[in-house]
Amino acid sequence: MAKRWLITGCSSGLGRALATRLAAEGEQVVATARRVETLDELVARHPKAVVAAALDVRNPEQCAEVVGRAVDAFGGIDVLVNNAAYGQFGTFEEVSDGELAAQFDTNVFGPWRLTRAVLPLWRMQRRGHAIFVSSVACMVPFPGLAAYTASKFALEGAAESLAAEAAHLGVKVTILQPGRFATGYSANLVMPERQITDYAPVSDGMVGALRGMNNKADVSSPDLFADVVWRLGHMESPPLRLPVGPDSEAFLEAAYDARRSEYDQVVKAGQHTYA
Fold first, then answer.
1. Domain boundary assignment for the chain
2. How far apart are CA 229 and CA 225, in angstroms?
3. pLDDT in tens, 150-189
4. What is the pTM of this model?
5. Scanning 57, 83, 197, 270, which has its CA 20 to 30 A from the CA of 106?
6. Helix count and strand count (H, E) for the chain
């Protein structure tokens, strides 16, 4: 049975690939982007399946309006994919209050306010599936991505709380943890206004790696992401967390092993004290 989807960040990358795949599968999609004209080609190819809507997740009024648009177009929403995000680069000391606030406004507060706008509909339907696109950076922090990593930690905490609060209402929650994908993430990386040369030995190499990510043969295609999410949306009992991409699985397995090892060394070996 076809699902009704609301997806953020569909102008390119993961969101665009997902909207395209869903439309091809006969799903009903409200595809959103800050610049709605970037969705013209998608709507032209799938005029019966895709409705385009302007949405900046930082705008509470637009969040409310797009939910109404989805109800008018398809009668409701079955799956919400909180995908829109960007990366603020900069070490902990370099990132300003304003840059940090902007990062959280898009990556955390945006998904929160949009999901909050959808929840009354799901409470009436007694069903719904909220999908939050996080990152392996939540488990494997990289130098120079302190603000981005912090935002993904916060996003996952919010999503876990939602899962505990709304399960009895028929609301399912899944946190996606993608690895490296060939998207516009690296090209759209925002550099901090203040840059401190003492951090160059760790930050310069990271910037270079991110900028060149799409040129590497082992970077996954957004089509893989789209396939995983399409199948996820039709699962009766979807997982709370799901790594996406072969490198994501490797990164996360190593991170979990390292945390378990540290726990064993510190707690079981009695290296902690409460005196």
1. 4-246
2. 6
3. 999 999 999 999 999 999 999 999 999 998 887 877 778 8
4. 0.94
5. 197
6. 9, 7
State yes or no: is 3 an active-site residue.
Answer: no
First and final C-alpha spacing in the chain: 60
Q: What is the DSSP letter of 170?
A: T
Q: Provide the CATH number for the domain formed by 4-246 in this structure.
A: 3.40.50.720
- Report pLDDT digits (tens) over 231-256: 999 999 999 999 998 888 888 888 88
Set 3, 11, 135, 148: catalytic member? 148
- Whether the predicted pLDDT of 216 surpasses 80: no
What was the pLDDT predicted at 124?
A: 96
**Known catalytic residue at 185:** no
H or E segment and range at residue 172: strand 171-178
Task: Identify the active-site residue in 135, 152, 185, 248.
Answer: 152
d(CA 148, CA 152): 6
- Asked whether the predicted pLDDT for residue 145 surpasses 60, the reply is yes
Residue from 134, 151, 186, 203 carrying the catalytic annotation: 134
To the query of whether residue 148 is one of the catalytic residues in this protein, the response is yes
The rounded distance, in Å, linking the Cα atoms of 178 and 167 is 24
C-beta neighbour count of 4 within 10 angstroms: 18
Alpha-carbon distance 144 to 114, whole Å?
Answer: 28
